[in-house]
Amino acid sequence: MPKLLPLSLLLLTAFGSAHAAPTPITIEQAMANPDWIGPPVESAWWSWNGQQVEYTLKRQGSQVRDSFRLPLSGGVGQQVADDQRGTLDAADRVYDSSRQRMAFVRNGDVFVRDLRSGALTQLTRSNDRASDVNFASDGGVIWQVSNNWFHWNPRNNSTRQVAQLKADKNPADAPKADVLRDQQMRTLSTLRSDRAQREELREQGERWRQADPTRAAAPIFLGADVEIVSSALSPDARHLIVVTKPKGYDEGRGGKMPLYVTESGYEEAEDTRTRVGRNDPEPHAFWLADAATGKVQPLSLDNLPGIATDPLAELRRKAGKDALKGNRPLELMSDFMGGGIRWNADGSQAAIMLRANDNKDRWIATTSATNARLENRHRLTDAGWINWGFNDYGWMPDGRTLWLLSEESGYSHLYTQTGSSKPKAITSGNWETSAPVVSADGNSFYFLCNQKWPGDYEVCNVNANGGAVREVTALDGVEDFSLSPDGQQLLVRYSAPYLPAQIAVLPSSGGEARQLTDTRSAEFKAREWVQPQMVQVPSKHGAGHVWAKYYGPEKLEAGKQYPIAMFVHGAGYLQNVHARYSNYFREQMFHNLLVQKGYIVLDMDYRGSEGYGRNWRTAIYRNMGHPELEDYLDGLDWLVETKQGDRSKAGIYGGSYGGFMTYMALFRSPGTFKAGAALRPVGDWHQYNHAYTANILNTPDIDPEAYRISSPIEYAEGLQDNLLIAHGMMDDNVFFQDSVNMSQKLIELHKDNWSIAPYPLERHGYTRADSWLDQYKRILKLFEQELK
To answer: Which residue among 28, 29, 639, 659 has its CA within the 20 to 30 Å range from the CA of 337?
Structure first.
């Protein structure tokens, strides 16, 4: 691991030298509509010639996102006029093999841009939305609309439908055996003659279709008992990988969420997701289809190592259940998680990322276009759970070698793999590699790395064969990046604690970054803020140290003890101790207010947070709320021992997972925190969703103990300090029912030191400034009453 910088140097490097005293802020200003801060650059991309950048900004007082164009030669960004929006390029684009053309989808239509002349060719103009655009091996373009695939031929400027996937019975298939039907056909010659003529007509029509180059290919029938999940067409426009699931699969009983404040004036109800463990995730099946002949072959999973081993067999046995028999059910690991289906450039091989439905294994397997046989290329197995991030993968330009991210070393790193050989590590160390991109010439990789310390994100570069990792940027808080069409420049979106995301440009070989935007308002830029200090809290529970953000006065007053506020970030797997602009920018301003009122504040990346490797992530497996609480107790000790914190005047708060942790702190360590605010909190993990919860706690039917020890409602008897519960009543992530159930539990326990604030028009992420203000005025009042 790279040697950490001394903390004083680290802070100066990341945030500059000391400054004037912080500007006072009110709770009304901190919770106001964030338009007063200025909009962040939400997305940015290169124009076709690399001479301009295009980006989007939220319109003041509106939810509209406008597009802007900014020349690199200088000037300010100009909003793209409505009648000029047809000249825009797009952030998501693909390049041909010579990098002389790019293709993209804008507003659901497909475009091709010639990078030599700038000529823009529109291939579709339809209300049906295209997706999955790519270049074909013949120089054309392929794309998908619903379950239909199309190919554009640039030589004659023609478009043809290559494949039509149908989850239906093939009309050419013989009907199922039936005694009465057989009797009818045997005894009545007229029926036999009618059927023969229909068959002749159908077969002749199909022969004509195949012989006529002006006709589209026949539909590909996958059966009436399936639904199509995904598909990918090979670049030669001949073969498809198709993923299906059982038709009408029972996902378990869903819920009904009541809506009380409605435009109709009447109470209404909204369907909501199923709870964890109501049914197993739908199993996926995988097929190789020939677009020309319609032939469909199943892809066997038998060659995947470990596929027939049940990693939860012992838990099932303890629960009185039998171990699974045969192959475990799998699903396609979606593009959202970094997975998906990838064809190589010539269409000879396809790679598929598969994930076991029990969350313990991830495979990358390949199949040739002519042999429907999956061959394992890489298996990642985890006794905890496979991460839902750090799964990016793809083909190198040679069409034989895969590149992939894997946590097999304990940290996410980049590997290459060829044939049946062992993967070769391209990066290594106790830091994370993420968002890799193959360079324009195919000789190296660009990616995000946090080598210096876990919250410092830069664009890095490494040779495709491995070697020294080189930091290309020195911006500390890189959010994302993209290479220019010629590969010679980097467009970087970056941020800082009080700088919403902006864009800069620099040579891809490295050098000084030139800032292109600063969208902050004059009012916001004029303010001085309490700079968060990045600190390492020693763990007394075997975790080494815990990274945290500390907010406090520039100089502690001798002999004074300070009341303490501790903040818990949400999402479970999220990083908040970093040099970027925080998702919790309102909370950061609130922390300024608390410091202004005499508090000290600590915000910790507790165990389970992102950015610290696999072991840190899975420390909460089957034990949510316990290691994290240990980290906060250590943080409290650190504040008392090093920052003159008053142990008798400590409070804690947070939203979502932070609300869950507030419950666990007050219920499981009574007397430690005199006040806590649990915002949109999980009170019982039985109520949460499957995709997140089953990773960490398995399912309630086979692991009830994990749910018992991880659910705050089981510890509610321990409440002796003051608790505020605040929750949006339209929350479709953590249901408001969680807080209603907790309220009933506290009533039954005769607790009288708690209150609840419902927000009738808010979902999980509040969108209304008045709701934010009301909630944080209550938190401030609670802290002022109980901690002063």
So the answer is: 659
Please state whether beta strands 401-406 and 754-759 pair in parallel, antiparallel, or not at all (unpaired). unpaired
Query: Please, which residues bridge with residue 547 across strands?
Result: 536
Give CA–CA dist 494/453, Å, rounded: 17
Q: Which residues of 17-28 are buried (b: 16+ CB within 10 A; e: fewer)?
A: eeeeebeebebe
Q: Taking the mean position of all CA atoms in its chain, how far away is CA 624? A: 21
Structure letter (DSSP) for residue 787: H
CA 638 – CA 654 distance, rounded (Å) = 20
d(CA 763, CA 146): 30
Q: How many helices (H) and strands (E) does the chain have?
A: 14, 44
Q: Find out whether 513 and 504 touch, Cβ atoms under 8 Å.
A: yes
Query: What would the two tokens of residue 642 be?
Result: 């090093």
Among the listed residues 82, 94, 92, 91, the one whose alpha carbon sits nearest the alpha carbon of residue 44: 91
What is the structure's pLDDT at 181?
84
Q: How many CA atoms lie within 13 A of 598 on its CB side?
A: 12
**Among all chains, which residue has been given the structure tokens 């003159």?**
644
Separation between Cα atoms, residue 166 and residue 321, nearest integer Å: 38
- Give the C-alpha separation, 285 to 298, whole Å: 8
Residue ranges in the chain whose pLDDT is less than 70:
1-19
Q: Other C-beta atoms within 10 Å of 542: how many?
A: 8
Burial bucket for residue 600 (CB in 10 Å: 0-12, 13-18, 19+): buried
Question: 424 phi and psi, to 5 degrees?
Answer: -105, 125
**HSE-CB of 562 using CA atoms within 13 angstroms:** 28
> What distance, in Å, lies between the first and last C-alpha atoms of the chain?
43
Give the position of tokens 């605040």.
Answer: 726
* 43 neighbors 25 (Cβ within 8 angstroms): no
Instruction: Determine the Cα–Cα distance for residues 517 and 613; give it in Å rounded to an integer.
Output: 33
Q: Identity (one letter) of the amino acid at 160?
A: R
Q: Is the dihedral of CA 656, 658, 663, 664 positive or negative?
A: positive
Query: Under DSSP, is residue 446 helix (H, G, I), strand (E, B) or coil?
Result: strand
CA distance readout (Å), 164 to 143, 149, 552: 12, 6, 63
Read off the pLDDT of residues 119-167 as tens digits, 9 standing for 90 and up. Answer: 999 999 999 999 999 999 999 999 999 999 999 999 999 999 999 999 9
CA distance 112 to 406: 34
Report pLDDT for 15. 45
| pLDDT in the model for residue 19 | 60
**Residue 571, both tokens:** 């999402």
- Listed in sequence order, the residues at least 6 apart from 771 whose beta carbon sits closer than 8 Å to its beta carbon are 728, 759, 761, 762
Per the CB < 8 A criterion, the answer to whether 591 and 551 are in contact is yes
- Determine the Cα–Cα distance for residues 565 and 603; give it in Å rounded to an integer: 9
Cα distance between residue 686 and residue 737, in whole Å: 12
Residue 337 DSSP class = G
Task: Return the pLDDT at 409.
Answer: 98
